[in-house]
């Protein structure tokens, strides 16, 4: 009977307001609304031969801070604008492997792939900031960082949060569980290794004119460009110059020669092979696999290959990089042909020789993969020296604003005119095949549209699926201008290991201090006790209320 009465009491309507207030109390103490939600991009996580690099964690849940000089930052997420960053301090902090809850680096909006500020490239302050970003990117990509690192773009909301965090830090009141403040949260699962990362090579042919009865293999000239990128933030690695410019130039050259080859009267006795390769940042692994897939007769038919790399930088100087000695007669012939056309265009072309070491797997230029298979090749690039591994591969500082459309147009004219004069045996004649006022003129609108597309499309190969829209678009475009288009899917060699979780959503919460929580608990608790007592007395009486707190009489067990 007593148990039955107790259950009825628990279900009495008098308890409903108490239960409601209790739920409200829990909600007030445990949860708060997000002040802001921000798109963030995680620092790349990868291994080289088992050695870890980049950010090794993705989940974030700590209070915000703004200074590297705190005593214990193991539970603090530092918000650091890149424009205000002291590279010396952050380098020391990372190299000394000091603990940190997380790092949020704020990039200027002008570095966003979607930014269209036409005055950007001419801004000296931005150019200086770009150099700082290049140094920072190199540091982060080549360090093993045991905490989450994210990039975001500055905006009014996050700037307001940072300003308040800075004020609190300056007043000696950094955000903690005791004092409250802002909490940064990225809900993410542990990064997972990408199994069997895919790389895709795309090729197309323009067959030369073969005379009836001629069984000899026609010579081939290959025009090649690597299309994928690599950078500190894979989701932001659009690589406008490295190597979006090379891809755009290749597509325009294919379009120009397709017009020539569409008419048997203007088709030369050379095959033209166009290759868009993947795996460029990883020792041009895709190029190696592509070349190995060729029949030996096809490789032997290649007269020479011209690889296009970073041909869109501002300036009027380009470099022909070769592996064969510069005094080689055929290298001299190629260089002379390019130099003649370059002079007509107001360009300067220099010859750069770098001997390859067959025993060293490191490949600095794409043409070196051809040279290793005894195919004459050269790389045309705005870069004067060979980049280091994973350097100049389309990172954070390589965007549309630092890529010159006019430079790409000149590079297209240089390559197309030089090849045309070679295959039509017009080297020593002052003839312009792709004249501006002709039907074979370079199309600036075509170049601009493809450059804008590539400048907004991240292309880090391990994160591109076999049916990625970009690969399909490149395949379709090459098919519009060439024949026998083929996509070769391969697996990236096992030296490199990559992990997922490249972007996420950062939630910024404003949380109260523990002192406030305790005061709130005290006030609401007192209110609940008072309300309960009042309701109980008015419905049951004071004696029943007192009996709830009276100790029940003990029962004595009688013994025989």
TrEMBL record:
Gene3D superfamilies linked:
Zn peptidases
Membrane-spanning ranges: 518-537
**Gene Ontology BP terms:** regulation of signal transduction
Q: How does it sit in the membrane?
A: Single-pass membrane protein
Major localization class:
endoplasmic reticulum
* Localization of this protein: Endoplasmic reticulum membrane
GO terms for cellular component: endoplasmic reticulum membrane
Keywords carried by this UniProt record? Endoplasmic reticulum, Glycoprotein, Membrane, Signal, Transmembrane, Transmembrane helix
Record-linked InterPro entries: EF_Hand_1_Ca_BS (IPR018247), Nicalin (IPR016574)
Q: Which family does it belong to?
A: Belongs to the nicastrin family.
What name does this protein carry? Nicalin
Q: Whose protein is this, by species?
A: Capsicum baccatum
Q: What is the lineage of its organism?
A: Eukaryota, Viridiplantae, Streptophyta, Embryophyta, Tracheophyta
């Amino acid at each position: 009977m007593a148990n039955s009465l107790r259950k009825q009491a628990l279900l009495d309507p008098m308890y409903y307001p108490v239960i409601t207030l209790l739920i409200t109390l829990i909600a007030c103490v445990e949860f708060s609304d997000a002040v802001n939600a921000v798109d963030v991009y995680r620092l790349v996580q990868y291994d080289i031969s088992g050695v870890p690099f980049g950010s090794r964690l993705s989940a974030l849940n700590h209070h915000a801070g703004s200074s590297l000089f705190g005593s214990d930052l193991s539970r603090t997420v530092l918000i650091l604008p890149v424009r205000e960053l002291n590279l010396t301090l952050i380098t020391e902090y990372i190299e000394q492997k000091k603990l940190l809850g997380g790092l949020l680096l704020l990039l200027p909006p002008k570095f966003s792939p979607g930014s269209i500020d036409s005055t950007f490239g001419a801004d000296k302050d931005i150019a200086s900031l770009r150099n700082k970003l290049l140094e920072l990117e190199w540091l982060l990509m080549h360090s093993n960082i045991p905490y989450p690192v994210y990039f975001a773009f500055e905006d009014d909301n996050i700037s307001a949060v940072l300003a308040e965090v800075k004020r609190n830090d300056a007043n000696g009141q950094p955000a903690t569980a005791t004092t409250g403040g802002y909490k940064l949260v990225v809900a993410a699962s542990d990064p997972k290794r990408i199994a069997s990362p895919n790389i895709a090579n795309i090729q197309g042919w323009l067959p030369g004119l073969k005379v009836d009865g001629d069984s000899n293999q026609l010579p081939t000239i290959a025009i090649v460009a690597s299309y994928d990128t690599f950078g500190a933030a894979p989701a932001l690695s659009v690589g406008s110059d490295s190597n979006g410019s090379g891809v755009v130039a290749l597509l325009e050259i294919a379009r120009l020669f397709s017009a020539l080859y569409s008419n048997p009267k203007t088709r030369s006795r050379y095959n033209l092979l166009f290759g868009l390769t993947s795996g460029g940042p990883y020792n041009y692994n895709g190029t190696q696999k592509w070349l190995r897939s060729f029949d030996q007769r096809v490789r032997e038919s290649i007269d020479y290959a011209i690889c296009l790399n970073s041909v869109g930088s501002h300036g009027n100087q380009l470099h022909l990089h070769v592996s064969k000695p510069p005094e080689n007669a055929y290298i001299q012939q190629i260089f002379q042909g390019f130099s003649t056309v370059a002079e007509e265009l107001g360009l300067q072309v220099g010859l750069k020789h770098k001997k390859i070491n067959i025993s060293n797997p490191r490949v600095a230029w794409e043409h070196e993969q051809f040279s290793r298979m005894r195919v004459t090749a050269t790389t045309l690039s705005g870069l004067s020296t060979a980049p280091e591994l994973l350097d100049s591969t389309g990172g954070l500082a390589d965007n549309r604003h630092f890529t010159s459309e006019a430079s790409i147009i000149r590079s297209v004219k240089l390559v197309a005119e030089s090849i045309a004069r070679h295959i039509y045996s017009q080297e020593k004649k002052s003839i312009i095949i792709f004249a501006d006022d002709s039907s074979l003129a370079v199309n600036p609108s075509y170049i601009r549209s493809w450059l804008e597309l590539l400048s907004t499309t991240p292309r880090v190969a391990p994160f591109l699926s076999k049916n990625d829209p970009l690969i399909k678009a490149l395949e379709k475009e090459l098919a519009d201008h060439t024949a026998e288009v083929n996509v070769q899917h391969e697996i990236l060699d096992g030296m490199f290991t990559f992990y997922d979780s490249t972007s996420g959503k950062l939630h910024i919460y404003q949380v109260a201090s523990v002192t406030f929580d305790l005061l709130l608990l005290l006030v609401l608790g007192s209110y609940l006790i008072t309300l309960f007592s009042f309701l109980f007395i008015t419905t049951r009486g004071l004696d029943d209320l007192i009996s709830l707190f009276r100790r029940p009489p003990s029962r004595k067990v009688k013994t025989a």
